[in-house]
UniProtKB/TrEMBL annotation:
NAD(+) binds at residues 11-16, 36, 41, 92-96, 133-134, 167, 278-281, 348. This is UDP-glucose 6-dehydrogenase. Its EC number is 1.1.1.22. It comes from Arenibacter troitsensis. It catalyses: UDP-alpha-D-glucose + 2 NAD(+) + H2O = UDP-alpha-D-glucuronate + 2 NADH + 3 H(+). Pathway: Nucleotide-sugar biosynthesis; UDP-alpha-D-glucuronate biosynthesis; UDP-alpha-D-glucuronate from UDP-alpha-D-glucose: step 1/1. It comes from the Bacteria.
Length: 465
């Protein structure tokens, strides 16, 4: 089996950064170089102040502190890193296509193809190329075709090694992975490449948790895993709407069904809707793949997961408007949270963006507080929707780092991210400073209904009447 001394990862994002940091910390004899074409991002990874890393994850800065400059390096020198490495991970973004065939559903593979062409141009000796990005089924064969036809006659083995980490718990997920999936060819050289990659993970994970499959199963498994997870959220969210119309409580229903070991208790929390860069994009991709094979019923089935998620976000916004006497125009509504979940600064597809957009359409005046998300990011998220001009977004929505001061004279608070700190706020003080009646719309089921009602709030919690 090949002895690995140098690996590189193309893409220093939410996956590439944490994944490679953990590999570097667990494999001190391997030099790990993470490269990106985004120089600003690389500068942030190299910032001496660890608070400025581009990705916030609990435990990440501690790992970077002990490995960076020793066997972990962040660089914009893509060609040099490719040239040196025996294994190249591709961890670039694979967003939903916004143009052409498959627009709005298929994965945009232009960044992947650029990487493949770059590797083909630079590589002078045999390489193992690892798809870490989430990719449609059969992408490996496209990568292989580019590498074999435009390369310098060197041998490439393509592996699929999808990443299952969840943002917010990335380091924990990487260190204690339920499983690692490695897909590759069944040829002798394919098997050897799988074993070579497996040996890296075996530094810290038991071998029986490292699953080897063929490359297509591996690619498809990642899409299916995300589709199943998102489906659970949409399933319980659909029931939350029913609970609100009856006297059932969604938490009690979740608990009751979760005790059934066939169902299990995880991922059954109702909320304002799932976000994040992956669930929606990967399901849309699955929908696209199914319909392109003529499997319309399969495509429709999975699309419903997204439809339900959009409904949940819309329902939350509409409930705010109708509860506030059918008008939010000129009313100050404070958002607690903007990130798509707690313990991350990632806002991609966050429910907060869509709820804000719906309320701004009704001329609400929103003030946003999030402990980890920057003002620049919040405005970028809103501007991206193109619903109104950037000037109007800045006029109607303000960003603050002072949540308690922000609630002065507010009509309502909407909890959009489940940051722990919100639980510890002095809610009786908050109540005093708000306009009355004071409304709290808890999209994360974070607070206790009884105590909030006792304090005097008109408190709405998703999934309870
Ligand atoms: P990201 O957008 O945070 O990072 C991707 C990085 O790749 C960017 O910094 C970009 O500048 C860089 N890049 C793009 N093209 C490049 C090129 N030709 N050369 C060098 N650098 C290039 O994306 P993220 O979230 O890290 O996701 C990466 C992949 O991992 C996606 O396919 C995603 O679906 C998958 N994934 C993401 C998870 C998540 O929680 N974010 C979890 C599991 C998988």
């Amino acid at each position: 089996m090949k002895k690995v001394t140098k690996i590189c990862c193309i893409g220093a994002g939410y996956v590439g950064g944490p994944t490679m940091s953990v590999i570097a910390s667990q494999c001190p004899e391997i030099k790990v170089t993470v490269v990106d074409i985004n120089a600003e991002r690389i500068n942030q990874w190299n910032d001496s102040n660890l608070d400025n890393l581009p990705v916030y994850e609990p435990g990440l800065s501690e790992i970077v502190a002990t490995t960076r400059g020793k066997n972990l390096f962040f660089s914009t020198e893509v060609d040099k890193a490719i040239d040196e490495a025996e294994i190249i991970f591709i961890s670039v973004n694979t967003p939903t296509k916004t143009y052409g065939k498959g627009k709005g559903q298929a994965a945009d593979l232009k960044f992947i193809e650029l990487c493949a062409r770059n590797i083909a141009r630079v590589a002078k000796n045999d390489k193992i190329v690892v798809e870490k990005s989430t990719l449609p089924v059969r992408t490996a064969s496209a990568i292989k075709s580019i590498l074999d036809n435009t390369g310098n006659g060197v041998a490439f083995e393509i592996l699929s090694n999808p990443e299952f980490l969840a943002e917010g718990t990335a380091i924990e997920d990487l260190l204690k992975a339920d499983r690692v999936l490695i897909g590759g060819d069944e040829t002798a050289s394919g098997k050897e490449a799988k074993n070579t990659l497996s040996a890296i993970y075996e530094h810290w994970l038991p071998k029986e948790r490292i699953l080897q499959t063929n490359v297509w199963s591996s690619e498809l498994s990642k899409l299916v895993a995300n589709a199943f997870l998102a489906q659970r959220v949409s399933s319980i969210n659909s029931i939350s709407a029913l609970c609100e119309k009856t006297d059932a409580n969604v938490a009690e229903v979740s608990r009751a069904i979760g005790y059934d070991s066939r169902i299990g208790s995880k991922f059954l929390n109702s909320s304002v809707g799932f976000g994040g860069s992956c669930f929606q994009k990967d399901i849309l991709n699955l929908v696209y793949i199914a319909s392109s094979f003529g499997l319309q019923e399969v495509a429709d089935y999975w699309e419903q997961v997204i439809i339900m998620n959009d409904y949940q976000k819309r329902r939350f916004a509409e409930n705010i408007i109708s509860t506030l006497y059918n008008t939010v125009s000129g009313k100050k509504i404070v958002f607690f949270g903007w990130a798509f979940k707690k313990d991350t600064n990632d806002t991609r597809e966050s429910a907060a963006i869509y709820v804000a957009d719906a309320l701004l359409e009704e001329r609400a005046e929103i003030v946003v507080y999030d402990p980890k998300v920057s003002e620049k990011q919040i405005y970028a998220d809103l501007d991206y929707l193109n619903t109104r001009t950037p000037e109007e977004n800045r006029r109607l929505l303000k960003v603050t780092k002072q949540p308690i001061e922000a609630i002065q004279d507010a009509h309502a608070i909407a909890i959009l991210t489940e940051w722990d700190e919100f639980k510890n706020y002095d809610w009786s003080e908050i109540f005093k400073n708000m306009l009355k009646p004071a409304f709290v719309f808890d999209g994360r089921r974070l607070l206790d209904k009884e105590s909030m009602t006792e304090l005097g709030f008109n408190y709405y919690k998703i999934g309870e009447s």
